[in-house]
Amino acid sequence: MSQQQTAVLEVEHLSKQYKKGIYASKDVNFTVNKGEIFALLGPNGAGKTTTIRMIATLLKPTEGDAKIEGHSIKTDPAEVRKRLTYLPDEAGAYKNMKGRQYLQFMADMYADSKEQAAGYVKTAEEICKLGDRLDDKIESYSRGMTRKLLLARTIMPKPPIAILDEPTSGLDIINALEIRRMIRQLASEGMSFLLSSHNMLEIEYVSDRVGIIAKGHLLELGTPDELKAKYNAENLEEVFETVVNNKESMGW
Amino acid sequence: MKFISLLKKELREMLTLQTLLMLVMLIVLMGSMGGLMGKAADESQAESGKITICDLDDTPFSQSVLKYLEHPTADMQNEVNVITIESDDYAKELDKHDIKSFVILPKGFEDSIRDGKQAEIVYVSRMTSLSMMSNINAGSETAVQLIQAAVKTAMYTEKINSGKLTDDEVSLMEMPVYVKEQTIVADKQGEVSPLMLYSATYSQSLFMPLIVYILILLGSQTMVNAVSAEKLDKTLETLLSAPVSRIHVLAAKMIAAAVVALLNAAVYMIGMNKLSINPTADMPDDYNKMVEQLGLTFDVKTYLLIGVQMLVTMLIALSLSLILGAFARNIKSSQTLIMPLMIVTIIPFMAAMFLDISTLPGIVKYLLYAIPFTHTFMASDCILFGKTTLYIGGLVYQIVVLIICMGIAVKIFTSDTIFTASEMKFSLGRKKQKVYED
Fold first, then answer.
1. Which residues of B touch A53 (CB under 8 A)?
2. How far is Cα A122 from Cα A118, in angstroms, rounded to an integer?
3. Residues of A in contact with B437 (CB under 8 A)
4. B237 contacts on A by Cβ (under 8 Å)
5. Cβ separation A106–B242 shorter than 8 A
């Protein structure tokens, strides 16, 4: 990780209450620095996606705020959207479009000029490495190919921060490894990442810092090594188990 | 055993509660429509016993005909309302007496009979709609038949008493009077029967509601499918997190759906025209001229006015579909969600095809008026038959509904409701619950 301490994303007391007393996400605080890969780690239903969707300006927080490069998701969502890209978990693409058409369409959404859009498409083509298959309709793509296309789409404008929800879900081992390497490479070039995953081994490999989340609460925060040392654990799975057990024993 | 299990599974998949509800709704709808049409037919039947007549001849003979009309037989009694008219501006006379039709015994009626000629009577009626049931005209037939019978009886009595009946008089007895029909459309009048006008224009009365129905149906389905597919594929999340105006996303969707629906409507319209026989083609030129003279042809202004209502209706249907699409949990539910919209479309569609909605009893009429689509189904009737207030009122109401629907659609799209609406789980007989995601 490049050790620059400029915060790209600042999350402060972020909460989403759907019904009185029922929180999908509660009082979440963390920051993501420039060039940092930050991962939210937790099982299904922990509140990862809700937190990420709030940061991506898709859900409105009921309490707290998050800022990307100083722009609030509550008061300035249009500016926030210019500074992030988001890849939802299990996302699809427009099946009637060809791969290249999809990249062009999404590039048009982010670019300010035709030249810039063409540049984005070129970048995406290099990232996804789908070659001639980009001229085929997306409906003929395998799940892995679609995911690579979507990842390329997410990364192509090189935003200050890319939010990836379960980035390697559906990918085989080789493709997943390739994606993780790509994320690390881009981070070293200064792009920040907010990842979400329940694959703890993947997170341990790729992330600079980790936030452990369960039942909507962010329970722990630190580098994988710090957390493993703190809980005397061999891997993040053990850390997670201990953290959750400790909380439950305290009547949480 | 295996087959039974397979069959049960397929039935469970296909015969859902929603499908059954739809069938029940169809039965209720068709029952109601049948009831309304039966009522229209009954009213028409009842009308046949009410004769409004103007005796311009005013002779003992014509008066004896009026008496006969009141009591054709010992056990039959008709309600005969004798009126006087001051001009041959029949539209004005109908308004003055607040009636829909009347029969005129013209001056010289008795003389024609005495001279052994077929006597003329005039039947004046107002046409108010192109719908099927509104053009059943029992009053005209009854009046003509009764007057024929009255004249026959009077002549028989007189001739038998005098012992004279020539061959010409015997043949005259077959049909002593002929009816000259005058039909009023808005403030114009023409010498043609309403039935002939209806035959000449029925294709318009069938096509317009059908095209409106197709527009709403296809537009809504396109929109619901587009929104639900984007939601379920999560392409909407991708799009709405991009630096693009949500209003633009919404507007692009609505315009595209409207274009698809309009294309479909155009193809259907051309196709239906090719399939159908043009009823006016085989009619004498006089009838075609009469249709034109009475303003029952669709000119540019009519098409424009109908087009305005179609556009507003289309936008209402699209914004409603957009709202409904936000609630889709899966592809199947997106199809189910459109059901209420289909029901509120098919009710006025059928009503407008068979009935003159503006003449229905109060509560039924206003319930139909409350459905914004009704006004578009009625648009051609309103424009052709001079119901200007109804047209304008309907359009204003539609615009208000459109503003409300668009407001809700925009609110859904610009808030997180687009992502949380489908998490609202509605269950029959159970309290609504929320299902939370990760």
1. 237, 416, 419
2. 6
3. 24, 45, 49-50
4. 53, 56, 58, 86, 88, 91
5. yes
Q: Which domains does chain A have, with CATH numbers?
A: 1-84+161-252 (3.40.50.300), 93-154 (no CATH)
Distance CA A131, CA A128 (A): 8
Comparing CB atoms, the residue among A46, A56, A59 nearest residue B438 is: A46
Q: DSSP letter for A26, please.
A: E
**CA A188 to each of CA A185, B49, B226, B332: distance values in angstroms, whole numbers, following the listed order:** 5, 95, 39, 45
d(CA A242, CA A226): 14
Q: Which residue has the higher pLDDT, B290 or B49?
A: B290
Cβ pair B233:A91 closer than 8 A: yes
| Chain B residue at shortest CA distance from A49 | B438
Distance separating alpha carbons of residues A194 and A37, to the nearest angstrom:
6
Q: Do B241 and A90 touch (CB under 8 A)?
A: no
Lookup: tokens for B274: 């090719």
Going by C-alpha positions, the residue among B173, B164, B65 that lies closest to residue B110 is B65
pLDDT in tens, B106-127: 898 888 887 878 888 888 888 8
Q: pLDDT of B28-37, one tens digit each?
A: 877 777 777 7
Q: How far apart are CA B158 and CA B65, in angstroms?
A: 13
The answer to whether B382 touches B390, Cβ cutoff 8 Å, is yes
CA distance B300 to chain A (A): 39
**Hey, which residues 229-248 in chain B have their CB within 8 Å of chain A?**
233-235, 237-244
Residues of chain B with CATH 3.40.1710.10: 44-191
* CA separation for the pair B225, B229 (Å, rounded): 6
How far is the C-alpha of A179 from the C-alpha of A184, rounded, in Å? 9
Cross-chain Cβ contact A44/B415 below 8 Å:
no
- Mean pLDDT value across chain B: 79
Superfamily of domain B44-191: abc type-2 transporter like domain (3.40.1710.10)
Q: Report the distance separating Cα B233 and Cα B238, nearest Å.
A: 10
DSSP B193: -
CA distance A125 to chain B (A): 19
Nearest chain A residue to B249 by CA distance is: A109
Q: Where are the alpha helices (DSSP H) in chain A?
A: 48-55, 77-81, 99-110, 114-128, 143-155, 173-188, 200-206, 224-230, 236-249
